[in-house]
Specification:
single chain; about 600 residues; mainly alpha; two-stranded antiparallel sheet; 21 helices; 2 strands; about 0% strand; Cullin_repeat-like_dom_sf; phosphatidylinositol-4,5-bisphosphate binding
């Protein structure tokens, strides 16, 4: 009976502490006060600490005996405690009592008389915490078995389940929140977390939580068909395959940072609510997200550190822009001190992607320089280097804002002589034109040199009109190159046809006219034969050239034939002189100049 009375006395002390609004751990102090009263309830003389401490020691010892009996029956049980709601509530009550007693004993750590009780309490508390950690895992693992996946996406599609892990299907609505656990499950997890943190086992609780939530993210990421390539594998993978992987990466990283991570943060806040410190929540969230974040960032970093081949520009820009869009979201999600390294790493990789883009863009200049004139390009058509560079620049300018930002930032940060985008592109075009000037010298016919330059300049001009590239170059550049195109046109016409038309404008006696007609026919036939194999791809330019040639040849030929027929020396001769072509014949031959393709 005495033992029961002491236990009742300790319980009464705890009830008084609660009534006074104090922490139940203050029960030890109240118990010492109560132990000084006699049976009558009056205080005796001055308190005697030795006697009081001795009484407290007895009460602690008896309370621990009772708790050991209650708790041991649960600890040795093979069946999960949380499989029965009544058992879980009873067990939590006993744990609360134990945590309170352990706290009281720690507050008396200098008192040797309670050292044995403190050791017993700590040992029992350790066993309880280990069991709570197991129960925490059990509650998380059993969640999918009782969880209706119809609720997970708040009205969206059902989710797949595999091996007890709920896995979200790829979605396009980034405002969605994944409610991966039922409210009742979250309540059970929170109840366990509160006790584990109070018992000094916050890190163990965090590990139990984060290890299981990582499974969800890893499995969900695998459903997005990311290959999880290492840095070395990225370097060894053909670029064409990496282009597809980049597309998948952009979709995955957007989904992860706009849906998965915000949902995980919300779940973390709910599971670890009502804790005295927020560090457990922040640490758990970081541990959940770290593996997935590192995997995603490592891929982007491997691309940033890869080859600087010009054709890589566009997909690397896509990566850069995707990272840029998500960094503000990262700054919000990863705002605590545990996630700070992840945020810094993301910013650093975004910067390295910018440096890679600048290096790739600069490599375009080297590509042009390394493309020397070899043999004459057939028919004087548009050279492949012209098509490549212009289509490259046109496509690049679709990301004009990003490129301008990258070139400005890298130049300012590194102190290098980085040109603004407009100046950079003008410089590339000057290199291209210089390269074409070298290539035109491979043609022996001056007229074909001018036609070659005209073809390529017309292509350059057309690609620069009515798009972002034209805006970057500016109207003055367009006007200047249109004038250059007209000059090439004039030079071609003069070098090809001035000598031929000159034969028709010569004055002289009848025999001289007949000789000139013969020479005209020979030269006209030769020019038409040769230039019928020359290439003018652009239909408008092709018709302008034919019309221009006809505009000088047809009138000259018509006048020449008229003068020949009206020559005084023809009088008295039998019949008219032999005239090989009518004016219509000449114009028809001119329409046969140039073909659309060299094929």
């Amino acid at each position: 009976m005495a033992e029961a009375g002491d236990e009742n006395l300790y319980a009464a002390a705890r009830d008084i502490a609660r009534a006074l609004g104090k922490d139940p751990s203050a029960a030890g102090d109240i118990l010492q006060i109560l132990s000084g009263y006699g049976a009558s309830g009056n205080r005796g003389g001055d308190p005697r600490p030795t006697a009081s401490r001795s009484g407290s020691n007895v009460n602690f010892d008896r309370a621990l005996n009772s708790l050991e009996r209650q708790i041991s029956s649960y600890i040795v049980e093979d069946r999960p405690i949380w499989s029965d709601p009544v058992d879980s509530r009873t067990f939590l009550d006993s744990v609360d009592e134990l945590i309170s007693i352990a706290g009281d004993l720690r507050s008396m750590a200098g008192d040797k008389s309670v050292a044995v009780c403190q050791s017993r309490a700590d040992e029992l508390l350790q066993q309880v915490m280990f069991r709570l950690q197991e129960e925490f895992g059990y509650v998380m693992d059993r969640a999918p078995d009782s969880f209706d996946s119809d609720d997970e996406f708040s009205g969206e599609e059902d989710n797949d389940t595999s091996d007890g892990v709920i896995v979200a299907r790829p979605i396009t609505d980034y405002k969605i929140v994944i409610e991966a656990l039922q409210s009742s499950v979250i309540g059970d997890l929170n109840a366990i977390a509160v006790r584990m943190v109070a018992g000094g086992y916050a890190k163990e609780c965090s590990r139990a939580y984060s290890s299981r939530r990582r499974e969800f993210l890893e499995e969900s990421l695998s459903r997005l068909h990311l290959r999880g390539l290492s840095m070395e594998e990225v370097q060894e993978t053909p670029w064409q395959d990496l282009e597809d992987e980049i597309d998948r990466w952009i979709k995955a990283v957007t989904l992860v940072f706009r849906v998965f991570f915000p949902s995980e943060r919300l779940l973390c806040d709910r599971v670890f609510s009502d804790l005295p410190v927020s560090s457990v929540t922040d640490l758990s969230f970081m541990e959940v997200c770290r593996g997935t974040t590192t995997q995603l960032l490592n891929f982007a970093d491997a691309i940033a550190l890869g080859s600087r081949l010009p054709e890589r520009l566009f997909k690397v820009v896509d990566l850069y822009e995707a990272m840029q869009d998500l960094i503000p979201k990262m700054e919000t999600l990863f705002s605590d001190r545990y996630c700070l390294p992840l945020r810094h790493e993301a910013v650093a990789i975004h910067k390295r992607l910018g440096e890679a883009i600048r290096g790739i863009f600069m490599e375009l200049e080297n590509l042009i320089r390394r493309d020397p004139p070899k043999t004459a390009f057939p028919g004087g058509g548009i050279h492949p280097i012209t098509r490549y560079v212009m289509n490259y620049l046109r496509a690049a300018c679709k990301s004009r804002q990003s490129l301008e930002q990258i070139l400005d930032q890298t130049g300012n940060e590194t102190g290098s002589d980085t040109r603004p985008l407009s100046v950079q592109i003008v410089w590339v075009l000057e290199l291209l034109e210089s390269n074409l000037e070298g290539k035109k010298r491979t043609y022996r016919d001056p007229s074909l040199c001018f036609l070659f330059m005209m073809n390529n300049d017309k292509y350059i001009l057309d690609k620069a009109k009515d798009n972002e590239l034209g805006l970057v170059l500016g109207e003055d550049w367009i006007v200047k190159h249109a004038a250059k195109l007209r000059q090439y046109h004039s030079n071609y016409r003069r070098s090809s046809w001035n000598q031929v038309v000159g034969l028709l404008r010569t004055e002289g006696p009848y025999p001289k006219l007949i000789e000139n007609l013969r020479l005209f026919k020979a030269q006209f036939d030769e020019v038409c034969k040769i230039q019928s194999q020359w290439v003018v791809t652009d239909e408008q330019l092709r018709e302008e050239l034919r019309s221009s040639v006809a505009g000088i040849v047809s009138p000259a030929y018509s006048n020449f034939i008229r003068r020949l027929k009206e020559s005084p020396e023809i009088n008295g001769r039998r019949g008219e002189p032999f005239i090989p072509y009518t004016v219509e014949d000449v114009e028809f031959r001119i329409k046969g100049l140039f073909k659309e393709s060299s094929r």
